[in-house]
Write a structure and sequence with these properties.
heterotrimer, A mainly alpha (288), B mainly alpha (334), C alpha/beta (286), B: 334 residues, MetI-like fold, flat, C: 286 residues, alpha/beta, Rossmann fold, 4-stranded antiparallel beta sheet
Amino acid sequence: MSGMEGVPRRSVARRKLGDGLVRIIAWVSASIGIFAMGWILYTCIRRGAASWNLDFFTKMPTPTGVAGGGILNAIVGTLIITAIAAAIGLPLGFFAGIYLAEFGRTGRVASVIRLICNVMVGIPSILTGVFAYGLIVIAMGHFSALAGSVALAVIMLPVVARTTEDILNLVPNELRESALAVGAPRWKAILGVICRAARAGLITGGILAVVRVSGETAPLLLTVLNNQFWSVDPTQPMANLTVTIYQYANTPYPDLQLKAWGASLLIIVGVLGANLLVRLIAQRGRQW
Amino acid sequence: MSTIDHTAGDGGWQGGRGAAKAAPRPRLHRSGSDTAFYGFTALCAAAVVVLMAAIGWVLARDAWPSISKFGISFLWRSVWDTNKGSFGGLTPIYGTICTTLIAIVIAVPLALAIALLLVEMVHPLVRKIVGTAIELLAAIPSIVYGMWGLFVLVPLIQKYVDPAIQRTPLRGLPLFSGAPLGYGILTAGLILALMILPFIAAVSRDVLSMVPQVIKEAGYGMGSTTWEVTRSISLRYGLSGIVGAFFLGVGRAVGETMAVTYVIGGASNLSTSWLQPGQTIASKIALGFPETGPGLERGALVELGLILFAMTIIFQLIAQTWLRRVRKRVGGRA
Amino acid sequence: MVDGTSEATVQREAVVPPRIEVADVSHVASSKGQELATKISVRHLDFFYGKQQALFDNTIDYSQNRVTAIIGPSGCGKSTHIRAFNRIFALYREQRASGEIVMDGSDILSSSMDVLEVRRRIGMIFQKPSPFPMSVFENIAYGLKLHYRLSRSDLRDRVEDALRRSALWDEVKDKLDEPGTALSGGQQQRLCIARAIASEPEVVLMDEPCSAIDPIATNKIEDLIEELKKHYTIILVTHNMQQAARVSDYTAFFYQGNIVEYGETTKIFSNPDQKQTEDYITGRFG
C-alpha cells in the first residue's frame, strides 16, 4: 500500500479550534465551580466569625428571644455523642476490615460482605436515623443521645471496614510471610506487625470517619433532637451542634441565626482541621 | 493518598493500588487463639450484614401500617392529608428525582472540567493547592450548604433568577411556571450540585491522574491535541472510575437531606414547576418525623424511607455490576 | 553527510587506536559510492531540564531510509536527544531545547512549525509497550482517523496492511476487536509499531523498543526494523550494542550529552576514531 498521497486530510485548524474551545469551557467551568465553593466558605467565615466571642463558647443558651449566651452544651453534646459513636463504630469496623483483608481475600462469603459494605456506605444518613428511632427511641420511649450515637455508628461501620481493608491491602504480602515465619500466631502477626505497618493509614481512616459523622444532622434530628439545657446523660436528649444549627436557622431571630452561622463555622474549622491533621500524619507516616 | 472517602465499589481506578486479583494470604496451622481471633473478626464482619438486614426489617416493620393501607398506589398519589389520614408519596418521589437530575446535569460536566484542568492544563503548584482545596471542600457537612442555600441562594434566586426566567419564553413551560419565591426544586438542585461537585471532581481527578504517562505520551506523539488525548485515551482508560464517581455522586444526591430541606420549601402538593416549592423523600422525612406521633402518618413517612432504601440498594447494585462489566469491555470497534 | 564529523562534535584528540577484532557485522549495508539523502539535520542542539543541561551542542545528520542507532551508557542523553525530534518534551514545563533540527528544509524546533504536523510525520515507539485502551483495530486506526478522512473500507484495508507489515496480522486477525492490552508484551510492541506506521510517518523514532520484551519477540522486531527501513527513516536508541551492530547502518555514540563519534556501523564497531568509543564498545565502561 502506498503512502498517504491524495488522501484527504482532516482540518487541523478545526481540530485545534475544538481543542481550544474545550480548554475555554474547562477554564470557565472550573472557575464557576471554584468560585461557588469559595463563596460558600467566604460566607461562612464572614457571618460565622461575627458570632464568635468568649460567651459563644463558654455559656449556655439563653431563653428564646433573649440575646446573648452561647452554645456550650451543644459543643459538649456533639463531642459526647461522637465519642460514643466512635467507641461503637471504630472497633467493629476495624475488626470487620481485618476480616475482609486478612481472611477474606478469596472467599464467596467475604465477597458478599464486601458488596454489602459497599452498598451500605451509600445509604442515606437519614435512614440510619429512622432505623435507630425504630429500634431504640421506641424501645426507650423517648429521644436519647445513645440512639443518636447508634445511628452514627451505623454510618461509620461500613466506611471504617472498607477503609481498613483498603489500607491493609497495601501492606505487602512479604511482611505477612516474614511475621509468620518468625513463628508468631496469626493474630499477633496481624495486630502487631501488619497493623503497625499500616498504622498511619488506619489512624487517618479512623479520624476521617469520625469527623464525617460529627457533621451529620439528619440522623440526630430523628433520634436525639436537642436540649436547651445542660445534659451529659446519654439516655436523655442531648444538645448538639448540628441540630442546634438547624433549629436556630429556622427561627426568625437574627441573634440565633448568627449563632447558627457561628456553629457552622465551628464545624467547618473542626472538619478542615482534622483533614489537615490527617494529611500531616499521612506524610509523617511515609517517613518510617 | 487522597482523603476523599470513595470506598464504595472497588472501582477500577483503584486498580493501581490494592491489586485486581486477590493475593491469597499465607496460612499456617491455626492455634486456639487464632481461631478465636478469626471468629471474632468474622463476627464483626457479619455484623455488617446483620445490620443491613436489621435496617431493612425495622423500616418494613414501621412502614407496614402505611403499606397495608395504601398498597402500591402510594407511589403515584400525591395527597398528604394528616387529618383525613390519606397519604401518597408522589410529591417527594418526583422531587427527589428532579433535584438529583438537576444536580447531576450541572455537577458532572463541571467536575470533569475541573479534573481535566487540574491534570492537563495547569502549573503543578496550582494543581496541588486547588486539588487540596477541593478535597477539603468535599468534607464539609451538608448542613453548611443548607445554611448557605437558605440565606444566600434563595434570596438570590428570588430576586434575580426567577424574574429572569419569567422574562423569557421559558415561563410558558409548566416546568418553569409560578410566582418567584426563591425556594423550590431548582434551588435544591443547585445546592445539591454544589454539594456533590467537589466530591466528583476529586475522584475524577484521581482517575485522570492515574493514566500512565507513557500512554498519554504515545497519544500526544501521534499528533493529538490535549482534548483528543483526554477524550480518546484518558477518559477511556479511567472510564470505570469516572462512571463509579458518577454513581457515587448520584447516590449522595438522592439521599441528601439537610442541604435540600432548607431550600426546597416543604410543599405537599405536587407541582411540576421547578420554580415552586417541592419535597424530596429525605427532606419530607426530616421535616415530618419530629412533627408526627406514632400512627399512620409516621408509617407513611417510614414507607418513604423504605422506598429510598430500595432505590439506593438497587442503584448501588447496578453500579457495582456496571463497574465490573465496563472494566472488561475496553475493546470492540467504534 | 555520511561521516557527519563536523568540528563541533569532535572535541577530543583524534587518536588512532590499534585494530580490534570485533564480531562480523558485514551484513550491515554500506553506502560506498551512493549519494545518500539526509533526512534530518541536527545543528547545535542543546537541551535543558530546568537549569540542568542534558545535551551539549549535538550536531549530526540522519540519512533517509537508513537505520541509525544511538548507543551510549545510561544517562548519556540518548532518549533526551530523540525526544527533541517530535517535541514530546513540550508536555513538560521545565524542559527546553535550543538549536536546529531540520527536516526537509524546515526547522522542527521553530515555533512556526506546527507540532501536530511534526508528530504526524515523526512517529515514536516507547520503551514500554503502550497500547491505547481500545481494541486492536482501533489502536491501529487511531492515527489514520486522527489525521485523515477515510472510508470504512479504506480504513480496514490500511489497518490490515499495517498489521501485515508489522508481521502481526496472522496473530491478531481474529482478535481485532479485543482490547489491545490482551496481547502479549512482544505483540503489544509490534502493535505499537503497526500503529505508528499505519499513518505513514516519514521518520520512526524508537526508544529502546526491545528492552522490556522477551528475546524471541526481540528477534521479530529486529527483523521488522530491517524491513521498515525501506519505507521510513529509523532512529533507534538502544543500550544493547549487539543489537545496534546487527540492525543499524549508522551508529552514533553518545556520552554525557555529547555526540562523541558517529559514522557507519561497521566502522564504529571495528575501527572507531575515538578512544572513548572504543572503550565503550569493548566494554571497558558502560
